[in-house]
Amino acid sequence: MSTVSRPHPQAPPQRTPRRAALASFMGSAVEYYDFFLFGAAAALIFPHVFFPSDDDAALVMSFATFGFAYIARPVGAVILGHFGDRVGRQRVLMFTLVLMGISTFMVGCLPSYDRIGWLAPVLLVLCRLMQGLSAAGEQAGASSLTLEHSPDDQRSFFTSWTLTGTQGGLILASLIMIPFMALPDEAKYSWGWRVPFWLSAAVVVVAYFIRRQLHETPEFTQAKEAGEIAKMPLVPLLRDHWRDVLRVILCAFIAVVSTVFANLALAYGKKVGLDADLTLWLVVVANIGALLTQPFFGKLADKIGRKPVFIYGALSSAALMPFYMISMSQGNHLITFALAVATFSCGYAAANAVWPSFYGEMFSTRVRFSGMAIGTQLGFLMAGFAPSIVTALGGVREGGWTVISLFTAVICLIAAAAALTARETKDVPTAQLGLRKDAVAPKELVLQ
Prior knowledge:
Distance between the termini: 35 Å
Helix content: over 70%
Number of strands: 0
Shape: globular
Strand content: under 5%
Oligomer: single chain
């Protein structure tokens, strides 16, 4: 009797959590080097360079250019989320890296208002929109990629490195800005501020070669081989996960703490008499602290759960922010640095470290990229326009710490309340995340 040989089933793709975490760390570092560089320049440089006057109105307009990226981000989230859930996480992440590098380099090449008038801020906004499109897919894609490469009991720890990469980018951008901010005004406002933007090209090249060596995630590869990739991921996302998308939007308001701390506080510190280089050092020191604390908070969330760690981060940020803001005008720099570390590294860092796993675990593999990207980017709109809103309300004037603190507290309470409604997922296997009885895709929505 002849026997029919059958093909052996392919071995499941190998998980490489450390390599995925490194690639996510480096990619996020590049993205947020570029992103924070723009934010710092919006507070300290752009009012002088791209607008006709150097007053509060110029500062509000400058912060508005910072916020324009957050308008582009929801659009980018839909587009990049679609392709991230259709063609794969890794390919989309290569695209976002290159786009961010090009747009940031171009900012450094723009002519000033004195040379081309209002066309200068228009071009600045266009570059910022490109940054926003890139950032829309970076964190969601990197978090999805790392989560799907991680062991079930260490997902929060490994995905925390995605956001720890953002701290690395913030630190690098701040350190590079400091010597150029110390230049004489003529050099600083003509060519000095441009150099950090040009240097981003070198950082992009390094991250590009690291990221290109990472293969696609096991979860996505298996879903693709099984024919479970949705033709239009947005359809099952909004049908089966609309509550989760809304929950992520409200939780993502917590990013306001970061923009208040890293951008708005720079302008407030300058108003109450702190030197620009000192305020930048506050950002550097606090983010160095977060490099150490965020992996700890990630491990903690793997032990006790995502919800308690996230909620602690939100509530502690609300409680500590007013003390940090008050200290800026008191003349005791040691206390200001201590409160900066407490607010950011010991408070906000908890929520920041946990949200990649917390949000990503709300969604199934077939819509995870889209769900995280759309939910976070809609929520981040609040963070993007927080500096302009608070500045318009008087938050950058003498005594403006009350406006800044109240605004931050309300936002943090909203994020904490939304987190309370979420399901705890630390003990749910990766393959079962986001699955519900009513979440089975109809055949017409699946690629066969």
